[in-house]
Write a structure and sequence with these properties.
single chain; 11 helices; Spore Coat Polysaccharide Biosynthesis Protein SpsA, Chain A
Length: 314
């Protein structure tokens, strides 16, 4: 391999994984090329992640560290790391070792054989307990039904990308985004690689509430179909109301109306009120997206960079 390589990962409460990840990533990278770098992006971690990454930087010239000013979120930190990567090939991977650094060689072999711009990992079987597997399946099915560019199911973070793909990926300046959707809409030739993702002990990184928030953010960031469905829902309610009104007129003219049904009236009021609140809330989410995007704020702020090439120019 003659191309240069960047391995990009993010840090958030990741101190326990950094050294093992560094050792395994170094072996995987050096087996392909001597011209490589490992870019750690510290996403405002409150533990010793930054300190341990800086120790590696001071010890190894292949290591760079980008320290964000606070926690901006996993996806934004990944995009920041990709924007700072310099390699001809860029390998994005999580630091917690659920994705294995050794996949790099397999991904590179597939990229060389297929001439693809991206080789990405897809779980052969979704990991986790029954609820996690079911909720994950529902997320993908529902999300893909609401967007124009569906994302592969059971996608993992690990992916090997060419320079031209990464340069176009980081051109997206969305303030609210889901990175998996950006991966897809950027285009180019992308090839899936089946992988077996490890399961680590401890609480899940994403709670149900977090997963639901990610789902809402993803759908409202990349699809206008919910707004279209609101229009159709309104048409359906109007049609049903007109039909029921015709039935009531028929009954009234033929003596079929007895004591007014208060229960049905209350149910109708609650139903229509719920529909109105839901529709207004959904429209409000889209307006909030517009409000955020028009501010054009940077999606991350960098506090410090540990980079020898920049230090040499000072």
């Amino acid at each position: 391999m003659t191309e240069s390589l960047s391995i990009v990962t993010t840090l958030y409460r990741s101190a326990e994984f950094i050294n093992a990840f560094y050792e395994r990533a170094t072996r995987a990278a050096s087996a392909l090329t001597a011209d490589y770098e490992i870019v750690f992006v510290n996403d405002g971690s409150s533990d010793e992640s930054l300190a341990r990454a800086v120790v590696l930087y001071e010890r190894d010239e292949h290591v760079r560290v980008v320290d964000l000013s606070r926690n901006f979120g996993h996806h934004k930190a990944m995009m920041t790391g990709l924007a700072h990567a310099r390699g001809d090939l860029v390998f994005l991977i999580d630091v917690d070792l659920e994705d294995e650094p050794e996949w790099l060689s397999r991904f590179h072999e597939t990229m060389t054989r297929t001439k693809a711009d991206v080789v990405y990992g897809v779980q052969e079987a979704r990991k986790g307990r029954l609820f996690e597997r079911i909720s994950g399946a529902i997320f993908y099915k529902t999300f893909n039904a609401l967007v124009d560019h569906p994302i592969p199911e059971n996608l993992v973070t690990a992916r090997l990308m060419t320079r031209r793909y990464v340069e176009n990926l980081v051109r997206h300046r969305d303030r609210e985004f889901t990175i998996a959707a950006l991966w897809v809409i950027t285009g180019f030739s992308q090839v899936a690689m089946p992988v077996h993702k490890r399961t680590r002990s401890g609480p899940a990184a994403y709670t149900f509430g977090h997963r639901f928030a990610v789902f809402v953010n993803a759908v409202t960031s990349y699809s206008n179909k919910p707004l279209v469905y609101i229009f159709y829902l309104g048409c359906l309610i109007i049609a049903m109301s007109a039909l029921y009104g015709g039935v009531l007129v028929w009954d009234a003219t033929h003596g079929g109306v007895g004591v007014p049904g208060w229960a049905s009236l209350i149910v109708s009021i609650w139903f229509l009120g719920g529909v109105m609140i839901f529709c207004l809330g959904l429209i409000g989410v889209y307006l909030a997206k517009v409000f955020t995007e028009t501010k054009e704020r940077p999606y991350t702020v960098i506090r410090a960079e540990y980079d020898r090439s920049k230090e040499s120019r000072l």
